[in-house]
Every structure is written in structure tokens, then in C-alpha cells.
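Record passed on here:
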Amino acid sequence: MSRPARVLGLMSGTSADGIDAALLELPGWPPLGTGGRFPTLPSGTPRGRVVGHHFTPYPPELRTAVLRAMRSEADTAELTSLHWWLGELLAQGAAPWPPTRT
């Protein structure tokens, strides 16, 4: 029996306090990358379940940089650095799996 498809979602909300990560299982869905159709599930059947979650807080100086960018106060060099920094933190947010069980 194969394991259901899994998807890892990563986001930073408007509070700009860190990265939230959630790992979802999608039973009944076609394997990812196969181009299959969305499944028709019986009424009331959940489309997925949360396997775990994790929060990675921003260091204070990164939060300051994100807020500056949100207020259009960052120049091109700051935005370039911020994109790299956020990419690194997103990768770290994806790293602590298996996550806390829910």
C-alpha cells in the first residue's frame, strides 16, 4: 500500500514574525506530478489532513527588513538581500521534518 501524497506548505504572514510550515497528507489524490484529475470524494470526506506543523521565528533584524519592504522603504540592494535571506529561512522552515504530530 502506498503512502498518500504529501504537500508541504510554507508561508510568512502579514505579521512578519516568522515562517509557518504545515505538512498535509492528501489521501485519494493522484500522485503528485502525474497530472491526474482532482478526486471526487464522498460528501463530508476531508480533502486532506494535517500531519504536522512547525514555526520558525524571524530574527529581529530580518523582521525589521521585512517590515521596511512592506512599507516600500527598502531599496533594490536591500530587497535583493531580503529575498536571499527569506529563501534561506524558508529552506530552514522546511527542514525540521518529521514535525510535531497533531
User: Anything to note?
Assistant: The CA atoms of residues 28 and 39 lie 7 Å apart. DSSP finds two helices and four strands in the chain. The beta strands are 5-11, 18-26, 49-57, 100-101.
